[in-house]
Design brief:
417 residues, mainly alpha, Glycosyltransferase, two-stranded antiparallel ribbon, 16 helices, membrane, Prenyltrans, repeat, signal, transmembrane
Length: 417
């Protein structure tokens, strides 16, 4: 779940680009070059441009801090609350929260789902959470799933992230139905490669979306779907359960069972980790696969959630010595590492010689209290914002033009900070 945001944008733009970008290019002047450095709000974690991942990375930073009993800075919580539109939805980032959201606002289901998890965990924001949950329900596709940008075709990643958020908020995803009567799980499970999939090693995996009518295994979608099928979010409570992950049960006793689907997804991830101790991916422009740190973290978290810490142990060990550069300065990456380490029953403050919690705290405003003891957050919410311009779409289109490889090898694995 870590740096999930960027390629979700690419995927959405692939749908939007054909019609939107040409018209936009005809009528809109390109942004000035060289572009001005991004203005980083004081309450935001990370120093990189937040245009595409501001809400996502803030949510994971806050969620991770809360999970390890660190009380986030009030201004960090206020910043996140101020990103919410009056509809309840969140864009990826609102540069000016004083400007109301309108018809041009580019809403982001992934960001909204992440914010729901963070605000629910922090407590005291039930009204804000309910508004976001209601908004997510309102943009459910007829097939029961969700897309990154409402109105686009459903994808497994967005559907899974939303399901996890709904479950964390106390909803029952199996009972959340589209106007066509399809449940949230009916929107997710068709993305799973079943007992007839070839090669057999891909059985249990989830695809991001069909490619030329075929489902192709995608580790990022698989990890997210495992959490969703289990009805869990990213803040996994460590469990004493520790059994080896098993392959997808074939023939399936109940192909509509989300828990069985989640366990099949966990089996795929465990097997994929065995060869190198981590996942591999081919990045755009490359002809050889390279270690996929982000999806490896996602896999560890999913396996821990499914009760298979033993199957995740080797990958966690690999991450201890190979994730530092990938996670450096990135609140989303550091936050997910904290969550994955915590979920496996290990100490995020002693991770291969690194204190992940201190590294995460250093990316934003200092937590409350020198001893980080929990105190109640009583923040006033700023109200709502304007939309993102067409260059968000154009930029995504240009990135999407490198090919479908990035979608098949996992999303948001570039270091967003």
């Amino acid at each position: 779940m870590n740096v999930r945001r960027s390629a979700a944008a690419l995927a959405a733009s692939a749908v939007l680009c054909v019609g939107a970008a040409p018209a936009a290019l005809a009528d809109t002047a390109p942004p000035a070059s060289p572009s001005a450095p991004p203005v980083i709000p004081s309450g935001l974690y990370g120093k990189s441009d937040p245009t595409y991942d501001g809400v996502w990375r803030q949510s994971f930073a806050l969620l991770a801090q809360h999970t390890v009993d660190v009380e986030p800075a009030r201004e960090a919580v206020v910043w996140l609350l101020g990103q919410q539109c009056q509809t309840g939805g969140f864009p990826s980032f609102r540069a000016n929260p004083a400007v109301a959201c309108d018809a041009n606002t580019m809403y982001d289901t992934n960001a909204t789902a992440a914010a729901v998890q963070a605000l629910k965990a922090l407590g005291g924001h039930d009204g804000d959470v309910k508004k976001s949950v209601d908004w997510l329900k309102s943009v459910q596709n007829e097939d029961g799933g969700w897309s990154y940008v409402p109105g686009s075709p459903s994808d497994a990643n967005s559907t899974a992230v939303v399901i996890s958020a709904l479950a964390v908020a106390g909803e029952k995803p199996a009972e959340i139905r589209s106007k066509a009567g399809k449940s949230a799980y009916e929107g997710l499970l068709p993305f799973q490669l079943g007992c007839a999939a070839e090669p057999a090693a891909d059985r249990g995996a989830f695809a991001y979306q069909p490619a030329d009518g075929k489902l192709l295994a995608n580790a990022d979608a698989t990890a997210a779907a495992a959490l969703a099928g289990l009805g869990k979010g990213a803040a996994v409570v460590p469990s004493a359960e520790n059994t080896p992950a098993a392959p997808l049960a074939c023939p399936a006793a109940n192909a509509a069972d989300p828990v069985a689907a989640a366990q099949g997804a966990a089996g795929y991830l465990a097997e994929a980790l065995k060869k190198d101790g981590h996942l591999m991916a081919v990045t755009p422009g490359a002809d050889q696969p390279t270690p996929d740190t982000g999806n490896t973290v996602d896999a560890v978290l999913a396996l821990a959630a499914a009760g298979h810490k033993e199957s995740a142990a080797g990958a966690l060990k690999w991450l201890e010595t190979n994730s530092a550069e990938w996670a450096k300065g990135s609140p989303a990456a550091l936050g997910t590492l904290v969550l994955a380490t915590h979920a496996t029953g290990n100490d995020p403050k002693s991770f291969g010689g690194t204190d992940l919690v201190a590294a995460l705290n250093a990316t934003g405003p200092a937590p409350q209290g020198a001893d980080t003891e929990a105190t109640k957050v009583d923040s006033k919410k700023e109200k709502p914002s304007g939309g993102q311009n067409v260059w968000w779409i154009v930029g995504s289109c240009a990135a999407a033009g490198v090919g479908i490889g990035i979608l098949l090898s996992g999303r948001r694995k570039k270091n967003h900070s």
